[in-house]
Amino acid sequence: MAITSGLVLFAVIWFMTFLVIIPIRIETQGEKGSIEPGTHAGAPENHYLKQKALITTGVSCLLWAVIAGIILSGVISVNDFDWFDRLPDPS
């Protein structure tokens, strides 16, 4: 795996993890009871974005290490997903 491939893989994992972690522990204005005029009651009051970004970075580093290790070890390759025998034989 080249450096660019590793960075792209990390970015994809980071953003997917971030989208999963964003809705966790959100406190809405409606739950707090202080709705600002002109906003929806479901708008976040406290979103803890910095902590979520740090958690996302830690989790995505672990996931990236596992996935990159699997790719680099050759346990799973592209030929494992060739269900229609369209790729040339790797040997």
Strand order of the largest sheet: 1-2
Over the alpha carbons, how many angstroms does the gyration radius reach? 20 Å
- Domains (count): 1
Residues in helix, %: 40-55%
Unreliable spans are none
Structural class: mainly alpha
Q: What's the rounded overall pLDDT mean? A: 91
Distance between the termini: 20 Å
N-to-C SSE series?
HEHEH
Tell me about the largest β-sheet.
2 strands, antiparallel
- Backbone shape: elongated
Strand content: 5-15%
Q: Number of DSSP strands?
A: 2
Question: What can be said about this structure in brief?
Answer:
The chain is built from 3 helices and 2 strands; from the N terminus they run H-E-H-E-H. The protein has helices at 3-21, 29-32, 49-73; strands at 27-28, 44-46. Helix 1 crosses helix 3 (49-73).
What does this structure look like?
The structure is a single chain. The chain is 53% helix and 5% strand. The chain has 91 residues and is mainly α. The protein has one domain. It has a two-stranded antiparallel ribbon. It is elongated. The model has no long low-confidence stretch (mean pLDDT 91).
